[in-house]
Amino acid sequence: MNITFDELRNIKHQLPHGSIKRIADELNMDEQHVRNYFGAHHLEQSGNHLQAGPNGGIVHIEDERILELAKRILSESAQNASSN
Predict the structure, then answer these.
(1) What Å distances lie between residue 51 and 6, 23, 58, CA to CA?
(2) Considering all CA atoms of the chain, what is the largest pairwise distance in Å, rounded to the nearest integer?
(3) CB of 5 closer than 8 Å to CB of 61
(4) Residue 79 to residue 18: CA distance in whole angstroms
(5) What digits encode the pLDDT tens for the residues 30-75?
């Protein structure tokens, strides 16, 4: 899957507090690996590859589990906000 770096960072910044730990726990991963997945400096250590381009470049994501869980958390958060 390909996504712009800006889109990836936007998802991270929208996540509620504690989401990095939740993702790491649910996927049985180290929290630092999850941070690297969304980060600029260690992006490739998480298995993602950044290519120069518009909107911060294009990130090629091999393993989409973290991204899928992050999107699910955002959806849950939106549902909780709308029900309050």
Answers:
(1) 13, 25, 5
(2) 41
(3) no
(4) 17
(5) 999 899 888 756 666 666 777 788 888 888 888 899 999 999 999 9
Residue 51: count other Cβ atoms within 10 Å of its Cβ.
10
The residue written with tokens 């709308």 in the block is 82
| pTM, to two decimals | 0.84
Q: Which residue blocks in the chain are alpha helix, DSSP H?
A: 5-14, 19-26, 31-38, 65-83
What DSSP character marks residue 51?
E
DSSP state for residue 17 in the 8-state scheme: T
- In the numeric block, which tokens belong to residue 34? 């999850």
For residues 80 and 50, give the distance between their C-alpha atoms in angstroms, rounded to a whole number: 34
Q: Which among 82, 71, 83 is positioned nearest to 16, based on CA atoms? A: 71
Q: Which residue has the tokens 């990836």?
A: 8
